[in-house]
Structures are given as C-alpha cells and as structure tokens.
Amino acid sequence: MDYRIAIVNSSSFGTRFPDQMDRLRKIGEVERVRVAGTCCGAELAKALEGFNVVISSVTPFFDKEFFENKRDLVLLSRHGIGYNNIDIPAAEEAGCLVTTVSPLVERDPVAEGAVAILLDAMRRVSDSHVAANEGRWAERASFVGNGLSGKTLGIIGCGNIGSRVVEILARGYDMKVLACDPVHHDDWAAKLGVPFEYADVDTVVANCDVLTLNADLNPTSFHILNADAFSKMKKGCYVVNNARADLIDQPAMLAALEDGTVKALAIDVMHDEPPLPDDPYFNHPQVLVCPHISAYTEEGLRGMGEKCVGDVERFVNGEAPVNAKTKLA
C-alpha cells in the first residue's frame, strides 16, 4: 500500500522537531492541510481526498458523515489525548484505526499550564506586564490580586491531568481540596497529605475559592458549569478551564463574571478554534484567554510527536497499536 499522510490543523506537529517529519517522509508523501475548525462531513472528506493517513489536531470534526464519504482512511492519529472530535463507532464501521497520545505524555505540561494561567489571573501578571511596557508603572497599586495559600481548591475531573493539578496546588499552597469525579482514587487521595474530599458539583462550587476544570467532554459534562451551577457558586471564585470549552455555558459564565460570582476566568480552550475575533471572551477585563498552549512545552510536544509518528510506523510495520480507541477485526 502507498501512503499519503495529512497533518491536519496542527501548527506545532513537526515544526519544533523536524526529524519527526523526516521519519514520516520515509513512509510516504506528507502534506499539511488546513481547514476551518468547524469543518466536518463530506466537506472534510473532500479536503482530505487522496490521503489515507491523518495526524490531526483537536479540530476538525471527523463525524459519521465524514467516514461515510471517506472509506480509504486507514489510520487517524490524534495529536493529543482527547478525541471528542472523532465519531469512534463510525470510524470502526469504516475500518479506520484511531489512536491518541498516551495520557501521561501530556499530564505534567497540561497540569502545569492550568496552574500557570490560574496564577496569572489571580495575581494579574499579564495585565501588569502590559502596563509596565506602556510606561504605566505608577499604576502598580491597581494590580492587587489574591493569594492561593490555605484556600479551598475545587476540581471537576480528577483523573490523569486533574490529579496532577491537585498535587501541585494542594502540596505547593497548602490547599484543601473538593473534587468531583465519578471515579474515586481513594488510595492516591490518602497519600496527598492535605484535606481531600470527593463531593458532588453543587458542594464543590458552593465551597471552593478556586475551581479548575479538567474533565473529559461528554454528555454528562457538557455545560457542567451552567446558570444553575453559578447560582450556587461561592462569590468571587476564580475559574480555570484548559480542558474543553464546552464544559462551560458561555452566556452563563459571562453573566457570572458580570455579577461578581466569578472574579476571573482563565481559559486555554475555545468552542471554535480559532475563535471568531468578536468572541465575547476576547478583551473582557476579567478573562485571560490563551490559544490552546497548555501542552506546549518542549518535553510535551516531543512526546506527542513521537507518539503520532510511532503510530504511523507501527501501522505500516503491522505492529499492534498503542492507545487505540477503535476495535478492529
């Protein structure tokens, strides 16, 4: 079989580590393909005509209609750990192997990214940086933030990445922890050495000073932060989301920022990527937006790229896949 490989919507794969692209070129023709973040279905199938291997970013959307119109795709390797942009049953039916980056590859980078933007928002680092560059040094007294030490951390999604966020913040800042997750890791929690309790969403939002979202996006977590949740939230809470944008109902969040329920939002993920220039989060005085960079460390990108290249090499060599999400005969 001849292979044509498409790198779809990823601005980072192969750019930092060109040796990874060289390895792919030994297998077949490699091209970068850029489509709209919302692209899907027959339109996406047309854009990828002639390619039978894809390495893809968090967008576009490989839905049922896509696989119905794209029967020659043999491998779809996600350049990341999430795969909510892929219809797994449709991929299986089409005979396409879907793989993702192994969870531990992104664990430290993404968790550290969550902590970084939280501290930025709480201590107004970016705001004061802009002021200093603009010669507004005398305004420094206006950049008064809040501390973390001794506060209560709320977390929704305490799995691979969320647990690492807890380790960093709870141990580093002596924080109490309230965690909402359907899976309880009691042995791990007992070793933390800080007050830790599993609770429901209502209890978490009502009692935390800082809330970080690290859950998968699925039907049970979609808009888990909605108007009802905000109505129960402790006033002046800081919220961090570097998981998936649709964990938050955006209109409800904007209302919570307006009435002071949420003091600041730090977000590294958007509903559409790239988002429209008039997205209401942009230039909002209480919102820190980053362009989905939480995994962007040298170590993280090297590991992610190695996994994707390895996926292609294993497939071509007839070896068993690693972290496969489809079950093929």
UniProtKB/TrEMBL annotation:
<keyword id="KW-0560">Oxidoreductase</keyword>
<keyword id="KW-0028">Amino-acid biosynthesis</keyword>
<dbReference type="InterPro" id="IPR029752">
    <property type="entry name" value="D-isomer_DH_CS1"/>
</dbReference>
<dbReference type="GO" id="GO:0016616">
    <property type="term" value="F:oxidoreductase activity, acting on the CH-OH group of donors, NAD or NADP as acceptor"/>
</dbReference>
<dbReference type="Pfam" id="PF02826">
    <property type="entry name" value="2-Hacid_dh_C"/>
</dbReference>
<dbReference type="InterPro" id="IPR006139">
    <property type="entry name" value="D-isomer_2_OHA_DH_cat_dom"/>
</dbReference>
<dbReference type="InterPro" id="IPR006140">
    <property type="entry name" value="D-isomer_DH_NAD-bd"/>
</dbReference>
<dbReference type="Pfam" id="PF00389">
    <property type="entry name" value="2-Hacid_dh"/>
</dbReference>
<dbReference type="GO" id="GO:0051287">
    <property type="term" value="F:NAD binding"/>
</dbReference>
<keyword id="KW-0520">NAD</keyword>
<dbReference type="GO" id="GO:0008652">
    <property type="term" value="P:amino acid biosynthetic process"/>
</dbReference>
<dbReference type="InterPro" id="IPR050857">
    <property type="entry name" value="D-2-hydroxyacid_DH"/>
</dbReference>
<protein>
    <submittedName>
        <fullName>Hydroxyacid dehydrogenase</fullName>
    </submittedName>
</protein>
<comment type="similarity">
    <text>Belongs to the D-isomer specific 2-hydroxyacid dehydrogenase family.</text>
</comment>
<feature type="domain" description="D-isomer specific 2-hydroxyacid dehydrogenase catalytic">
    <location>
        <begin position="19"/>
        <end position="323"/>
    </location>
</feature>
<dbReference type="InterPro" id="IPR036291">
    <property type="entry name" value="NAD(P)-bd_dom_sf"/>
</dbReference>
<feature type="domain" description="D-isomer specific 2-hydroxyacid dehydrogenase NAD-binding">
    <location>
        <begin position="116"/>
        <end position="294"/>
    </location>
</feature>
